Each structure stands twice: as structure tokens, then as C-alpha cells.
Amino acid sequence: MNAIEFQNVVKRYGAVEALRGVSFSVERGEMFGLIGPDGAGKTTSIRALCGLLHVDGGSIRVLGKDPVRQHRELTAEVGYLSQRFSLYGDLSIDENISFFAEIHGVRDYRERRDRLLAMTQLTPFRDRLADQLSGGMKQKLALACTLVHEPQVIVLDEPTTGVDPVSRREFWKLLSQFLAQGITILMSTPYLDEAERCSRIALLHEGQLLALDAPGKLRSSLSGTMFEVLVSDPRKALDALHGAAAVASTQVFGDRLHIWIDHGDAASARRDLDSALAAAAVQASAARPIIPSLEDVFISRLASANKAVMT
Length: 311
What we know:
Elements: E1 4-13, E2 16-26, E3 31-35, H1 42-49, E4 57-62, H2 71-74, E5 78-81, H3 93-103, H4 110-119, H5 135-147, E6 153-157, H6 165-180, E7 184-189, H7 192-195, E8 200-205, E9 208-213, H8 215-220, E10 225-231, H9 234-241, E11 249-253, E12 256-261, H10 266-279, E13 284-290, H11 294-310
Parallel strand pairs: 3-7, 3-8, 5-6, 6-7
Antiparallel strand pairs: 1-2, 1-4, 8-9, 10-12, 10-13, 11-12
């Protein structure tokens, strides 16, 4: 049995369809990512699987249970870390963890609390008030509170947003440790570099599932050839290449362009690229085929979805 099952889930907020027939499953012991920009449906999916809102269609199962009808049973098996820091600022680190242990009915929690404090490197600060913690330390405390009742599944909604790079790296080390203990992790993130750490990811956009697979398989699934092109004025070149017949998509990456030719082999794709650059009067100092990034895959899938809608 999978840890999480979404089957054709639909959720509407008035005229807005936040989830449009979304289906995916998360295996036990897996780290699974919900990836997409703001408004993609990530938080709605998470709130639905935590039983915090009713869906308008389809079904959700978490550890084989209905998260709404069997919500009380699931609270002992699922830990949820929301986007915003929601702990008590006037309580110390120790007191916050103790409070969450007790509301989950965990009585002999002191050894567990000490172990979590050691793992999160918060032991020296255990008497500090939560309001006096840095952003990274707050997230570590929230994670400790989420895990104090030893859930089978933890759900993280954009846990590293607004956290500095060093704290992000430490947070990911913690997640790797918990994953090694057999805990199932589902997390949402807008950061595609974080998606690379997941065993599988679902790419979401405006409530639709664009793609679902392992990051490496998604990158290799892109047909045609992706080129990295060095130009003097990327924005001007982007505008000049807009609508070029041979070019499936063009995106700016710093001082370079990523240009996707979605047909033919590498040789014919290069000829089409050169023709498109010449026709647009774009002078390129260098151009080379590259392995597509997840961002390239996301943009290409989005372009394909938009093309399908238009036709």
C-alpha cells in the first residue's frame, strides 16, 4: 500500500479550479516533491491530504485512510509543517516541543526531545524563546515539533522559503537522516534545485499535473536538443527569436539563452538553430548542446500544454 494516493482530485474556490483532476501516489519511505510556482496547487494539495479541507471530486488516501473522515486517526501518523512559522514565540524551544508532544498524547517524550534537539543542533539554545530564533533555527524547531510524536509521514509546505543557504543545506541533511529511518516525506517547493533531491516529483501548474517521474528521467524525456547560446544582449535576442518557426522555446539564463529545438537529431537541430539565429539577426559567440535542466523541462511541458489548449 502506498503512503499517499491522489485519484483525479478536484478542488474549486468559487470559479477558480485550484486542482484539476490531479493524480499521483507516494510510496512508503520515499521523498516526493510537489513542484511549481505560486498558484500551482501545491498548498491546496497538502491541505487536502492533511484533511484540512474537503475536495470537490476524486479521492485521497493517506496510509489507507480518508484524511477527512478519519482525521483523528491520522493525526498520530502524520506530521505537518506549514509555510509559516506557527509555534509559540513566548515559549522556549524545550517548551514548544513539550507542548506538541503532550497534545499528541506522547507522555514519555524527554528522551525523544533530547534526541531531536541533538539532531537539529538546537541543544545549546533549548532555553531560548522561539521569537528570538533565526529563520533557519525556527524551521529546525518546527521540524522537531513535527516529529516528536514519531509520525510515519511528514508533510512539508515550502519549508526552506526565506531560509538562508547554509540553513537550507542543514535542513536537507536532517531530512536525509529522517528518510533513512523509513519516514515518508512529501514536500512542496518552488526551488527546482531542491527537486533534484527527491526520488520523484510532480510538476504542477495552475492546478494541472504537467509531469510525474524521477528528476533524471524527466530531464532525459525532453525530445529534440537543448542549446546554451552565449549572446551579448540576451533580452534583445529573446525578443528577436520570438515566434521563430524552428524554435520550440527560448529562455534567459543569466547572460545565456536556452533554446529548445524539439525535432530532429542533434545535427539537424544545430542547422535549424543557426538558421533561426541568422534570420533573427542574433550574433552568438558560442552555442553548444546541453543536458536540459528541470526548469527547461517544466517550461517545455508548459509550452506543450498551452499548445494543446490552443489547438
